Amino acid sequence: MTDAVPKPDVPSSMYEYIGVADAEAWADARTVEAEAVDWAALNDAAANDVEHAAEVFSKGPAGALLREAARANAEAVCEALLKNELVVSDEEMQAALRVAVEAQSEVAAAVLVQGGADPNDQLDSGIRLLHHAANTGADGVVDALLQGDAYVHQRDDDEYTPLHRAVMADAEATARRLLDAGADVQMRTVEGRSALHLAVVHNAADVIPALIDGGARPNQKDDAGYTPLHRAVEHDAQDALRALLDHGADPHRRDEGGRTALHAAIEHENESALRLLLERDVDTKTTDDQGRPPLHRAVEMGAAALVELLLDHGVDAYQRDEHGDAPLHRAARADAAAACTLLMEHGVDPHRRGAQGRTPLHEAATAGAHAAMQALLDHDADPHTTDDEDLMPLHLAVDTDQADVVEALLDAGADPHRRDREGRTALHRAVDGRATAVIPVLLRGGADAETADQSGYSPLHKAAYRDDTEVLNVLLEGGLDPNMTDSAGRTPAHAAAQADAADALQGLLDKGATATQLSEAGYAPLHIAANQNATAALKTLLAHGLEPNATNKDGRTPAHTAAQSDAAEALNILLENDADPDVTDERGWRPLHVAAGANAVDTLRILLDTDSPLHTEHDNDFTPLHVAASSNAVEALHVLLEAEAIPDVESHLSGQTPLHAAAYANQAGAIAVLLEAGADPNATDQDGETPLYKAAEKDAEAAITALLKAEPDLEAAEAQYGRTPLHIAVWSNAATALEQLLNAGANPDAHDTAFNRTALHMAASLNADMLVHTLLDHGADPEIEDEHGQTALHSAVDNEAHDALVRLLEAGAAPNATDADGQTPLHGAAQHNLGDATAALLDYGADPNLHNSDGYTPLHVAARLDAATAAELLLDDEADPDADSAALGRTPLYVAIWNDAKEVATLLLNHGADPNRPDDSFERTPLHIAARNNATELVALLLKHGADPNQGDDADATPLHSAASDHAVDAVEQLLESGADANASDFEQRTPLHAAASSNDPEILRLLLEAGADVHATDDEQQTPLHVAAWYDAADAARVLLEAGATLEVTDATFGRTPLHSAVWSDAIDTLTVLLEHDADVHATDTSGRTPLHVAADDNSEKAIQLLLKHGANPATPTDAGETPLDLVSDASSKAARRLKRAR
């Protein structure tokens, strides 16, 4: 080891630099005067000779010198002082570090930290060294502290980390150094804010990029649920806001209230932020958790500047919130008149509907928003628009008792008479809601106070009914008539009496109401009060002097109505005021009858105590006991019987006992009471009906059960038809009663006396399937015949009772039973075209070929009525399609054709019916009938199935003869096309041409002639068709025949007459004219030498004579007997004679 090099003497300047005279002075010093130190020189000297400097420094107050060197950032001085660990204490070194940090002496701080000073120390103020350095943006100091392992996440007394402090100071470089050293960018303050939130709050825009670069999430929410963007808007931190948007912050992120930054800008009325966000094209349609888009919230707040900014940006002014409301609705509801005006000036329609179909005017009315309403009305908003519930703004304004709003709407023309769905006008709603402020406004505005709602009540009636004197007085002070009537003729006094509203009633009387007026139902307020046991109202009315025995239109007094509702207190009050307990109404009912029927025991006893008579009948023939029995008023019955009412008392008109009345009304309780009191269960009324009959008629199960306990006569028959209770039970379709009677032993085969019908006949005719089943189960005989010989099966068919029919067949009823007319049930089914019934009968063995007394089978019956459904079923079951009817020998096909039954005819032919089978009377075939009737479809059908068009009847007339004689043009054409002989002759040798000539049918004549008919054909008297036409004055036919070459000169075989003779003979003037026009020979003579003029003279036919003479007939020509025409005139003075004389 070498010897230490001796140090040179300390230059005297070292002390001078320290600010003392010499070493001794330095040694005596207790502190250092920082202002006296030449720090630059001292630091240089220490740097040049550290060892010597350390030795010098150690001789004096080294700790003080270290503090001041730290403050002066004198690096070399600090290093020299720390050279010897014994020179300064740890505490002095920490104090020096605190000074260095406060003085932002980064070099000194670094030396001190490297020398062992604790970088996690705190200042005297309690602030940690790193926090202080970060807060002041002393990034060099921060760096020095971090190199000494300063705790980067340590929190100060305010719970801030160094990074938080750097952020609040907007110290970007410091923040980055801290982040580089591992500072957690996500650490939150006690308020739950991240470093990025702090940056925003302090508008520290410079540090924001550093934070985001260091991992800060720009969209992260603080503990209150706000993103940095929301906080930037809240604190109007415009620079921060831009920085966030520039570095990826999402403006559409929502806070805990579902609001975006745009919502926040509006919420805080931050116009600058709103403009900035709009410039960034943020979504303006997004809604918050309350379903509000930004514009809705702006108008709701009345923030006109923001509204205008949004509208200018093109925001949708009609966008709806989650309730279906547009911005104008929100503005109206918030009474934001300026916003309303602004929206409408931007073209928003004030009539656009929102939630519940309401317009902005509705919303303003609901909210009582007078200013907004006026703005809307000023822009022509329609006050009559109704919402989805048919309510106008006026209705809604009334509901909230907003007088100024109501007045504004009325001034704008709102109709006060418009009704809501319950039929209420605005005035009704005001009364219902006790909106006393708006009632006078409505009345002044013309509201009709007499208009009734759906209950029939006017507003005044309603107030009276509710005993609402406050509303009542407001209405009456408005000039309303206290005696107004509703649609039922009720006054407000009626309504008050109904509700026992004595105060309202007194108020009405004080205002001049008359309490004697009858409603349309015939009741005065006194009747109503009595009926409702409204004692307070009753006393008020009687005190007003009203007559206690006043009658309504039915003659009923208040005592009647009190008795009806068992209003005992009211009845006593009436009796105390001289009400008559025995007064009768127009039907003869006394209060006692009314009380008995209502089972009003209390009022009944009160009336019996007045000695009201027990057995007096009312006009409906009932005593009080009858009335109580029919109403099952058991308690009343006991009271009446205890008062010695007779249990079998008969009514004078019908002879019914109370037991009849109870049975008919199914009142088992009343029956038991009466039977116990000795009532006769077999008593009959004037129609011979017993109580059991009455009960069976009404299917009164309980009544029958009660009566059967008394073992009544089950077979007792009534007088008119001889029907037993069993009959009437079936007739009334009383299934339960039927079962009860049969189980009790009633005879199921008992006949009535009027029609000899059993209950089974009745049940079948009614298609009462279950009743039929019940009767059969109890042994009813299905083969018993009624007075017409019909069984129950016939009845079922005749009444189209299919269910009953099947039930009877299943029980073995004879399907071929015949009635007095020989009709089987199958005949009836065919007659009614009942397919189901026909099928059922056939399934159970009904014979389809049986004849009735007219000789008809069921198939004949079906054919007559074109009952195709039944016919098809019969044919499918081998019914004979060619069966003859007994009388005329007609087949079903013949009958079908005769009755134009096309469907059945088709079925018959398809099932092999003979189309050429003639009847027995005239031997006419079906084709004869069809042809004669011009039934073209049937003609075609028959021809298609082989009908012979040339088959003759018993007179040898073919179908063509029949058609030609009956103007059946279409049939003639069909027959000719099918080969019918146009020259066929009947037994008189007449052809179809003769037939057509006789019927004067030129169209048929032409058809026949075209088909080759011989115009010269003669019958057995040698008469041609022209003779026939002449005889029948068939002028049109004569023309056609002549055009076809008919001969005018041909004569018949009997008299040798020409057609001209025939025309004259039958005085056929029209045909005579035609023949003469065709140059018929007027001089032709018959076998007697008579000319046509002779014939005309003999017939004294002046018209024929005139025509013949005109055409050259000779009046002097004699007959073979020498007679001239004049000789044959029977009356020489006749016109015919005179004309002949002149012609000579």
From TrEMBL:
Say which species the protein is native to: Longimonas halophila
Q: Which UniProt keywords apply?
A: ANK repeat, Repeat
Taken from the record, one Pfam family name reads Ank
Question: Would I find Repeat among this entry's keywords?
Answer: yes
What is this protein called in UniProt? Uncharacterized protein
Asked if Repeat is a keyword of the record, the answer is yes
The ANK repeats lie at 125-157, 158-190, 191-223, 224-256, 257-289, 290-322, 323-355, 356-388, 389-421, 422-454, 455-487, 488-520, 521-553, 554-586, 587-619, 620-652, 654-686, 687-719, 721-753, 755-787, 788-820, 821-853, 854-886, 888-920, 922-954, 955-987, 988-1020, 1021-1053, 1055-1087, 1088-1120
Show the segment(s) annotated as Disordered.
1113-1144
Spell out the coiled coil positions from the record.
Answer: none
